[in-house]
Fold this sequence. Notes:
This is GAG-pre-integrase domain-containing protein. The protein is an alpha+beta fold.
Amino acid sequence: MDKTIVIILKGSENWPVWKFRTVIALKAKKLYDVVENPRDENVSKYDLSKWIKRDQLTQDFIVAKMNEGLINHILNFDTVHIWQKLLTVYDKKSEVKRTYGAINFFNYEYEGQGLAAHVSSLENIRNQLEQLDEDMSDRILITKMLMTLPNEFSHFASAWESVDKNKQTLNKLMLRLLIEEECIKSQGADDKRGVFVNLFSISTTVEKALKMSFNEFGCRVFDANGNCCATSVKRGKLFEMQFNIKSSSLLAGGQKQFGLKEWQQRLAHQNFRQVRLVLKRFDIDFKDNEDECCASCLERKQHRFPFYSNTTKYNNVGEM
């Protein structure tokens, strides 16, 4: 009993898999040469009889694995012409599908459905192309993901490029994107709680006799003498104010210039290990020193009174 498993050909949708498994099965039965070479009439009667028998076995094998509706296309054909007909019809359709699949992949854009669904859609398109014998490397998929990230992830591509090339895998990219998405969502929730103080008020600006000029790139604020006193850049549907840092002692102006000890002092003398975790979490450069020690912390730890537990818990930087 023939236990060879070959799926039924239903049409162009499963042609690549059907063709692959059928070719393997024919080669295993030593019948594949029958579908490639037409019958030679110049051979001996014995060889011709032997070839006809193999031809019939091949036809039976192929036709038995086809949907009945497709058999109408190959009626009255010999084995070679049956195979050539299938190649002409379905390989051509597969080529068209590969072309449209590639166009669909490179034209795909993020539609606000969430990063998990976005990445899943791109992977589905790639899987469809691979079923049509169109290989696509992880590098191309990663590049497409980075190119189609929403505006709030504009910083992520440069951060990803700083990761070691050997560690730039698809799974790690997906993990970091999901973590970043959660951070952005939590920051957005915090901003909404303080929206009345975080936003720059246009009405308040106008009431102070200042003038504002808007264009497609941003806006400018002018005083009564026509001097520009503030500028902003358009980010999506909001205008981001641009401020110059005039003192290196300011946190925002010095975040790339200080060592671990300075950061530990800025972050309320937290444990050095915790300070490192915070700085690495926000991708802040700092000069690390494994032997760093804070004299002020040691002095305060030597007092005789116990530390009282605080019922208020802080999760984010700057909440204290």
